[in-house]
């Protein structure tokens, strides 16, 4: 066998589609049967995903009104409150933001805030239930129902 024949045989053994198999990548998990769901491999590694006006990263999910930037955050789903890479202050839980108001749902509590994305948020009211299934409404100001001040 000549040099060309030997080289062609070597390539056939290592190049996919030519009858051979590639060697496994270095530092890879052992081969396992493919099943639906989570596959074995590198753990504790998450790449930030950008999908138009949405960013998904290890902190949570952030939705912006257009190109992500300062003042453009409209919704977030995160575990803890914080500030995003553009300086927007976000709230814990599932939250939505408007010009000077925001609300979040976190652990069965509904929170209402006043403030801004740039300066941060101050809780104004809270809606919850207790173990007796009573509705609890807490406010930093008056509570009005059907035009009547009740608290």
Mean pLDDT: 82
- Rg (CA only): 27 Å
Structural class: mainly beta
> What's the helix-strand series?
HEEEEEEEEEEEEE
Uncertain regions spanning at least 5 consecutive residues: none
Percent helix: under 10%
Q: What would you call the shape?
A: elongated
Terminal Cα span:
96 Å
Number of DSSP-assigned strands: 13
| Strand ordering within the main sheet | 1-2-3-4-7-8-9-10-11
Major sheet description: 9 strands, antiparallel
Strand content: 35-45%
> Helix count, per DSSP?
1
Describe this protein's structure.
The protein has 151 residues and is mainly beta. It has a domain at 49-125. The chain is built from one helix and 13 strands. The chain has one helix at residues 3-14, and strands at residues 49-51, 54-57, 60-64, 73-78, 82-83, 89-90, 93-97, 101-106, 109-116, 120-129, 135-139, 144-145, 148-149. The strands form three sheets. A nine-stranded antiparallel beta sheet has the order 1-2-3-4-7-8-9-10-11, with no helix packed on it. A two-stranded antiparallel sheet has the order 5-6. Strands 12-13 form a two-stranded antiparallel ribbon. The longest helix is centred in the first third of the chain and has 12 residues, at 3-14.
In summary, what is this structure?
The chain is built from one helix and 13 strands, in the order αβββββββββββββ. The protein is mostly beta strands. The model has no long low-confidence stretch (mean pLDDT 82).
């Amino acid at each position: 066998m000549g040099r060309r024949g030997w080289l062609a045989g070597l390539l056939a053994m290592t190049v996919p589609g030519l009858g051979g198999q590639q060697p496994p990548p270095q530092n890879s998990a052992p081969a396992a049967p493919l099943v639906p769901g989570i596959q074995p491999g590198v753990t504790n590694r998450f790449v930030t995903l950008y999908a138009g006006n949405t960013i998904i990263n290890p902190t949570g999910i952030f939705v912006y009104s257009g190109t992500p930037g300062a003042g453009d955050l409209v919704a977030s789903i995160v575990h803890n409150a914080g500030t995003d890479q553009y300086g927007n202050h976000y709230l814990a839980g599932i939250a939505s933001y408007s010009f000077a108001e925001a609300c979040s749902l976190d652990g069965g509590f509904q929170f209402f805030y006043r403030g801004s994305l740039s300066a941060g948020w101050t809780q104004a009211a809270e809606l919850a239930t207790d173990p007796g299934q009573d509705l609890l409404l807490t406010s930093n100001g008056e509570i009005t129902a059907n035009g009547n001040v009740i608290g």
